[in-house]
Write a structure and sequence with these properties.
Elements: H1 4-33, H2 38-61, H3 65-106
Helix pairs in contact: 1-2, 1-3, 2-3
């Protein structure tokens, strides 16, 4: 039971790392849409995000498999939260665009 504070820290660290990783992926996709060199953006982002995540996992785990599991759990939960948040924002934006389009069509 004395490892509980370490597991809690590992879980929170995994959640923060997950938000960084998946938020960074979303940011990269947004940037690539307007870029003339999308492959460089994707590759650079992948290398940077993966390197930071692997370093973070390694620092958090310190050789303990239970901390890796807690970190991974936080990472995966962050993935679901980021995807849910971004898809809700995209749906709201899509709804606003559809509403604007219908108003534009009606004003003709």
């Amino acid at each position: 039971m004395s490892d509980l504070p370490h597991l809690t820290v590992a879980f929170v660290a995994g959640a923060v790392l997950g938000m960084f990783f998946f938020g960074g992926l979303w940011w990269t996709v947004q940037k690539v849409v307007r870029s003339e060199q999308p492959a460089i953006w994707f590759l650079g982002s992948l290398v940077l995000r993966t390197g930071l995540i692997l370093t973070g996992f390694s620092l958090v785990a310190q050789g303990h498999w239970s901390r890796i599991v807690a970190c991974l759990l936080g990472f995966l939960i962050a993935r679901f939260l980021v995807v849910k948040r971004l898809s809700r924002g995209a749906a709201e934006t899509r709804g606003d665009q559809e509403l604007e389009a219908s108003h534009a069509y009606q004003s003709r």
